[in-house]
Prior knowledge:
The structure is a homodimer.
Chain A: H1 2-27, H2 38-51, E1 65-68, H3 82-94, H4 107-111, H5 115-119, H6 123-134, H7 139-152, H8 168-179, E2 183-191, H9 192-203, E3 210-222, E4 225-236, H10 242-250, E5 257-260, H11 266-273, E6 280-285, H12 306-314, E7 317-320, H13 321-324
Parallel strand pairs in A: 1-2, 1-5, 2-3, 5-6, 6-7
Antiparallel strand pairs in A: 3-4
Helix pairs in contact in A: 3-6, 7-9
Amino acid sequence: MAMKRALLAVLTFGFALTFGGLATAQTADPLPSWNNGKAKKSIVEFVAKVTKKGSPNFVPPSERIATFDNDGTLWAEQPMYFQLFFALDRVKALSSQHPEWKDKEPFASLLKGDVKGALAGGERPILEIVMATHAGMTSDEFAQIVKDWLATAQHPVTQRPFTEMVYQPMLEVLAYLRANGFKTFIVSGGGIEFMRPWTEEVYGIPSEQVIGSSIKTKFELRDGKPVHVRLSELNFIDDKAGKPVGINHHIGRRPVAAFGNSDGDLEMLQWTAGGTGARFALIVHHTDAVREWAYDRKSHVGQLDKALDEAQTKGWTIVDMKQDWKVIYPPAKR
Amino acid sequence: MAMKRALLAVLTFGFALTFGGLATAQTADPLPSWNNGKAKKSIVEFVAKVTKKGSPNFVPPSERIATFDNDGTLWAEQPMYFQLFFALDRVKALSSQHPEWKDKEPFASLLKGDVKGALAGGERPILEIVMATHAGMTSDEFAQIVKDWLATAQHPVTQRPFTEMVYQPMLEVLAYLRANGFKTFIVSGGGIEFMRPWTEEVYGIPSEQVIGSSIKTKFELRDGKPVHVRLSELNFIDDKAGKPVGINHHIGRRPVAAFGNSDGDLEMLQWTAGGTGARFALIVHHTDAVREWAYDRKSHVGQLDKALDEAQTKGWTIVDMKQDWKVIYPPAKR
């Protein structure tokens, strides 16, 4: 009897610990920066149903692929894409090596501080600026340039480092999905080698799970040392219909959940939502002019028009940033 | 006292189980199909040193990237690449829909059974055969065609299914590395969408860790249903200097271990071995004319010439298949 009781004590103690652990895990809110509402509820319900063994909606862990747009979905994108701030700063930093830029557009306008004028020509001046600042070095050198820039650059409105203009509620979604067996990927129109140097630290997303636009690279031996040289030639534009193509190329299977904020994400959301079984498609709607920015159908950056209509028609989750998010950014680090 | 003893019994029983488990794990040979020799020793020593915390050679789990060529490294490649058998079988299967092939090379020779004649022109006829058999359908349809073919096709010499002509000793290396925190990737000249339908089942490598050659794809909605259409246009050749480019594009960091068997793998091995810290580069040398095939410097398939010289100069691990491998293939399943 004594032995039986002792065993019982040990087992009970053990179970108590286990139950305690479970209770904590179940009652702790995985999305504390989200107000209770339809958006939060839809995320939690989706995760619950696809992870419940035996449920008709169960998704095996290997198929739990979630893809996230970056600009406007994981971090801010106003008043212009942050990678463009990087490019403009690089033009200034490199201008002493390029005396010819003083008389050559779009560089001349840029160096005079006229960003609007420099970019007025649309895609072509942007491409020229990108190639002048993103090509010619090795991939390792470029990664270091990006890191050095991020270490000191500040957003012109908030004065925050750009990596602290990520959305706290979305960081929680990333962590919540991973805690439930999801692999999280970035699928961005931004440069793949612009993002990889910092996505692991900032988002917990390793470089092999980052998909983006790219220029071509060339492998060569320099004095016997192997390097990747970045060439002035576009390789892939990971935007609009390019997003599902990038997903197919890098991941090779259809996501079960996708998160975006603009018409550039529409095809990714269509591809994700168009599969069989449980599916989740979410759009971050920028509705908070006070704490962030409010823009959608007429915006030059992150235009959300067709995708907003389709989200409403198809019942995708639409996040009303002003209503749904308790905070926008994580606490400042410096 | 009784309680103390009982507790002790429970704890002892528990510890005994634990110790028993550990002892088994430590003494079981992770590479049972490898003869004891330099090659096996080099693999085990590399894994031991990069996983030992506090060691100067320690590699954190996120950096434990290992890349494997496929043809000739993970499965056989003689008398010709297995994907070419697939393409030839597809030409036969599709010939009734293409009456014009009777008078058009390389199809005419192929359909008469003259493979050598059909492929005599080098890259061009091969490309024509690939495009005629690999493009025009959706990615999902293509995956099904590959699976259906693998379910019945047999190797002409061994009469085995092609997926049973994988190398048992290499399956053990894959599992051993993964058990030690490595992410294992395929980096093959073969088609990315030809491999993905079966690599998870056969190698334990999920589709998002498969890198290969590709044709372009196009995303579109067909009656509202999103599909990826395979186009008759080359996208990327993942061979020779293309291999490190593919690795950089898909993974975004340098592997610490790479495995190949031919000159097509040389640049991948250079890129891997050229980094700082502990590095591992291995070449499978096909030396067993009885159990497999013996070929190297003069072979038309899987030529191993420059890479063999460089492996010897740089002290990379060279597997002598005849000496180092106890068995070649896993036990037959059917």
